[in-house]
Amino acid sequence: MYRSYFRCIRGCPGEYSLYDVIYTCPHCGGLLEVAHDEEELSHRSAAAWMHLFEQRAGTTQWPYGSGVWRYKEWVIPDLEDDNIVSTFEGNTNLFHARRLGREIGVPELWIKQSGNSHTGSFKDLGMTVLVSVVKQMIAQGQPIKAVAAASTGDTSAALAAYGATAGIPTVVFLPQGKVSRAQLIQPIANGATVLALDTDFDGCMRIVKEVTKDQTIYLANSMNSLRIEGQKTVGVEVVQQFDWEAPDWFIIPVGNLGNISALGKGLLLMKKLGLINKLPKLAAAQAANANPFYLSWKHDFGEKISVKAKPTLASAIQIGDPVSYEKAVRVLQAFEGVVEQASEAELAEASAQADLNGLYTCPHTGVALAALKKLAARGVIKSNDRVVVISTAHGLKFTQFKMAYHLRELEGVESRLANEPIYLPADVAVVKQVLAERLSR
Question: What's 398's DSSP letter?
């Protein structure tokens, strides 16, 4: 029987049930992680795991059609299927960005479209796991009244949607005025209690940690390692899409650092179980206006650096004191990873360039693409490398950002690729003249 449990990431003794309300180590206060009985998992061969996961891909058999629960034995193996809360998340496409890759100098550029999910972001991958475990906890008699999270947008949308699917009340704490309308309406529409606080994300995080000391309100932020178990499947799915061959690089935008911790966790498990024979390199991409992980990396992770995050177009990663710092450091060192930053102008122009090559990117994906351009220009990423950029959210959530770019309304951004609409009278001759000029360029 496969099993999983919480343990301290710092190595303190003790195992804790996933169905207990616990977020940090009772000995040292460090974060917990979900651990698996890897020896038991290794009794099934790598080929047998591949065959099992291939059989489940795309099936309508509950719950294995999900891109997360396809890998159930690697996620929460003892969770009862009836308590799984799923929208068949995952299963998102890999976009081979040939034209964009050639422009950047990396022809084998692929974009993992994680925003093509139920609520439009990769946060669905983690929330399906957390809400499913909560549903089982309630079934077992835990007196949980609601699930709560601080959010810069996407986490709140995923929590509200999965909570509504399960019939579990949700509470979200949002930094007032720092979330796009498209993101704000999602938890509202799904019936969450939405608290817009006059602070930033870090302030919301401090408050939600205090509120969830009441064990009837369960914490859903990524310091809760259940989220990591779902999010780690994104890397596993990418490798499966490449016929079980790991790419050379993954690049992912980071804020609270749970996503890169999760990505590395899944890939390390694949390596231990023999499904891949090499680890890819990882690049964490930060906005320069919210770059504590970049600054810590520049100082060889000698200490955790926190900053007061400045406003950034990549609002979901406007975080100055990332919760999952220790996990992310450990992962980056295991993968010989790097951290790069992008200015507001760089992320906006990179997003626009991607869109002109057939994508429709969120500003956070723009951060990752800008980081890729800088790493490729310096030769850190080679022209023959296969590179996967994790696109974390759908561009439709950020229509205001895109309109402002093309109308040249973004402060400090040149908008060199702006494509403004042309307003004309309803006159055929005028229309033909304008088209002749445009199409002759």
Answer: G
**3-state SS assignment for residue 158:** helix
Does 282 fall in a domain?
Answer: yes
Q: Which amino acid is at 378?
A: R
Nearest CA-CA partner of 415 in 424, 402, 427, 426? 402
H or E element at residue 6:
strand 4-8
268 vs 293: CA distance, rounded Å:
21
Whole-Å CA distances, 243 to 15, 53, 195, 218: 35, 12, 44, 38
pLDDT value of position 58: 86
Give the chain's length.
441
pLDDT confidence band for 222 (50 / 70 / 90): confident
Taking the whole predicted model, whether its pTM rises above 0.70 is answered as yes
Contact 205, 192 (CB under 8 A): no
Report, in this order, helix, strand and coil percent for the chain, each rounded to 5.
40, 15, 45
Q: Give me the pLDDT at residue 177, please.
A: 84
| CA 43/CA 108 separation, integer angstroms | 35
Q: Is residue 436 part of a domain?
A: no
Give how many domains the chain has, as a whole number. Answer: 1
Asked if residue 431 is part of any domain, the answer here is: no
Residue 317 DSSP label: G
H/E stretch holding 434 reads helix 428-439
Q: Would you say residue 180 has pLDDT above 90?
A: no
Residue 354, both tokens: 């991607």
C-beta of residue 335 within 8 angstroms of C-beta of residue 246: no
Q: What band does 223 get if pLDDT is binned at 50, 70 and 90?
A: confident
Range of the domain at 356: 94-120+228-406
> Residue 362: is its pLDDT beyond 90?
yes
pLDDT, tens only, 38-89: 999 999 999 999 999 999 998 999 999 999 999 999 999 999 999 999 999 9
Any alpha helices (H) in 13-153, and if so which ranges?
Answer: 38-41, 46-56, 72-75, 98-104, 123-139
Residue 286: closest CA among 325, 250, 317? 317
Query: What are the structure tokens assigned to 72, written together?
Result: 């159930």
Task: Confirm whether 110 is domain-assigned.
Answer: yes
CATH number at residue 356: 3.40.50.1100
